[in-house]
Specification:
alpha+beta, globular, 118 residues
């Protein structure tokens, strides 16, 4: 859900996957990252490449790593970026698994060239 909402730019539903204790901080981080995307080059979509790695940390905690790449469409032509690891620390509570922390690669200088950012 986190990556899907980042791809669409829509916050609707994002709150359900963020832990309550860190909700505002994680939402601000999400908004800053999405803002970088909008300053540089918003992709047509973000896509998970390969399997998602889930490492059980015990005590209802897990580290989740997904390799994410951006795809831009321009009519019949598409450009696929290089996949970069997005890491999430998750916690399980009564509502299910939720994001505790997000460690994302830089958008500017990571997913897109640094000079593409205005």
């Amino acid at each position: 859900m986190y990556v899907l909402r980042m791809s669409s730019g829509e916050e609707l539903g994002l709150s359900r996957v963020l832990v309550d204790e860190r909700h505002e901080e994680l939402l601000r981080q999400w908004r800053r990252y999405r803002g970088e995307m909008e300053r540089a080059s918003v992709p047509s979509k973000l896509e998970t490449v390969g399997p998602i790695d889930v490492e059980d940390q015990g005590d209802s905690r897990a580290t989740v790593t997904a390799h994410i790449r951006a795809i831009w469409w321009n009519g019949p032509t598409s450009l696929s970026g290089t996949a970069h690891p997005w890491r999430f620390e998750t916690r399980r509570d009564a509502g299910g698994w939720r994001v505790w922390a997000a460690d994302l690669p830089p958008w500017c200088g990571g997913h897109v060239r640094a000079d593409a950012c205005r």
